[in-house]
Specification:
The chain is of the alpha/beta class and 270 residues long. It contains twelve helices and eight strands. Bound molecules: NADPH dihydro-nicotinamide-adenine-dinucleotide phosphate and (2S)-3,4-dihydro-2H-pyrrole-2-carboxylic acid. Pathway: Amino-acid biosynthesis; L-proline biosynthesis; L-proline from L-glutamate 5-semialdehyde: step 1/1.
Length: 270
């Protein structure tokens, strides 16, 4: 891709996307630049990613065709104030923060700008990201194609209407955290039964990966796939019964409602 891609902020999410893009050969390393605050991050990321690293946000903003704002939500206001005059009218600005709306972005730049509100996730690092995208009205079909090409290089994408964006962290932006908790819990359960720790993580994680692939690749309903595992009078249905008694599905839905409420609360403070 013949574009310069910039990142304001080079933390966990920016690194996952940059490494994903590089692994997929979307762009050469010299087509990516990123800024951070501390010398420690600048030196560490230069060493790890071999991209142009700087503490000069304006310089990154000025040279980017696509500019990711990859700082925490609380830092958006100050960062936009700093860079807004350096950003070109043709630059596509990508927000990845929970709770920052397109209206807030447009108002902060104080002029018509191309903005895409997105919600990626950290598995982008290994090319298995899931990102929701929501462009504003200033993006052309060609601009959206550029953004989809970038995000598809490190995973999959769905274009989502803005009124649903606060619900996305719960299902894909934040959900890797609870998937890791599930894997950790299964590994603990395996260790309790005498299985060595390293093998326990491999067994649990590969079972999760395989189950997810079954849903995506067979197109079968997850309930049908679950039924296929449950031998009548067998071991699996005993586990399913215990999970139902401890409100497994209800707990997950409640956690997701809390996640969505927090995203909405972040939106309201902006
Ligand atoms: N982590 C995740 O799973 C996901 C995160 N997000 C969103 O991504 C965004 C970033 O999160 P995450 O990567 O986890 O956060 P991190 O804390 O890991 O990274 C934040 C980065 O921003 C840099 N930074 C802070 N202030 C400035 C500034 N004024 N100018 C330039 N750089 C600055 C920090 O620099 P330094 O290192 O020098 O302090 C750091 O590199 C958030 O808005 C979050 O909502 C979205 C989806 C998933
Ligand atoms: O916890 C958060 O607010 C961000 C959004 C999704 C993942 N991390």
């Amino acid at each position: 891709m013949d574009k310069h891609i910039g990142f304001i902020g080079c933390g966990k999410m920016a690194q996952a996307m940059i490494e994903g893009m590089i692994k997929e050969n979307l762009v050469h390393r010299e087509q990516i630049s990123a800024s951070a605050i501390t010398e420690e991050t600048i030196v560490a990321m230069k060493e790890k990613l071999n991209i142009l690293m700087t503490n000069d946000n304006k310089a990154v903003a000025a040279k980017s065709d696509v500019l990711f704002l990859a700082v925490k939500p609380a830092q958006y206001e100050n960062v936009i104030d700093e860079i807004k005059d350096a950003v070109r009218d043709t630059t596509i600005i990508v927000t990845i923060a929970a709770g920052i709306s397109l209206a807030v972005m447009e108002a902060s730049f104080q002029r018509p700008v191309k903005v895409v509100r997105t919600m990626p996730n950290t598995p982008s690092l290994v090319g298995e990201g899931m990102s929701a995208l929501c462009p504003n009205t200033h993006l052309t079909a060609g601009d959206l194609h550029v953004i989809e090409t970038i995000f598809n290089s490190f995973g999959k994408t769905e274009v989502i209407p803005e009124e649903l964006m606060d619900a996305i962290p719960a299902v894909s932006g934040s959900s890797p955290a609870y998937a890791y908790m599930f894997i950790e819990a299964m590994a603990d359960g395996a260790v309790q039964q005498g299985i060595p720790r390293k093998q326990a993580y491999n067994l649990a994680a590969q079972a999760m990966l395989g189950a997810a692939k079954m849903v995506l690749e067979t197109g079968e309903h997850p309930g049908y796939l679950k039924d296929d595992v449950c031998t009548p009078g067998g071991a699996t249905i005993a586990a399913v019964n215990t999970l139902e008694k401890s409100n497994f599905r209800g707990s997950i839905m409640q956690a997701m409602a809390a996640c969505t409420a927090q995203s909405q609360a972040l939106s309201k403070t902006k």
